[in-house]
Amino acid sequence: MGTCHYMDLFFVRHGVTDWNKEKRYLGHTDREVINSELTELTDLKEELKRMHFDHVFTSDLRRCQETLSYLNLSSHTSIDTRLREMNFGDWEGKTYEELKHDPAYRKWIDNWEHSDVPNGESGEDFKARINAFFDELFQRILENTLHSKQQVLVMTHGGVIRYFVSKMVSSHTFWNLIVKHGQGIRLSFVWQKGEWVCSSLSEVPFREKEK
Q: Average pLDDT in the 79-98 region?
């Protein structure tokens, strides 16, 4: 029999920034976290402190790296620009109220996956770079013959998490998945019949009722 492969993939969304507070679109603009808000992550920090991660990856943007620094994990960290949020181009720093009458914005809201952001990133380009990162990660897990189960943490942005979870878990869509700042989500995967299958999804810190 071949080796069975399992992976627990932990997503963490970065802490809150001033633009997040003001509900402004924040993609590649490099805003810092509000330090006083990081205390909201105390329970998550304590939960993650009890775990060992085989790999930790983060977006290169400050809000992710500052959040990861606060969590103070002992594992080695790799920085990957593919884990950035979508580039919102001309919409960076703007609010829904400022954009709601823009035809290009309305088109994007209705079908973001197949629409372009003016001077920004198309949905197809965004998905392609996220897929490329996770394809490489999953292949790396398969090629590791020493450990059949690994735990991986990815510190990234809301759009990245919403896209990947909606891709792998059919019960969630991009727009209906709510990921709060500083929230952790665990996806458990098993390699079955030539593909990775998500066997469970849970919030971190874990709920008392979780089995």
A: 98
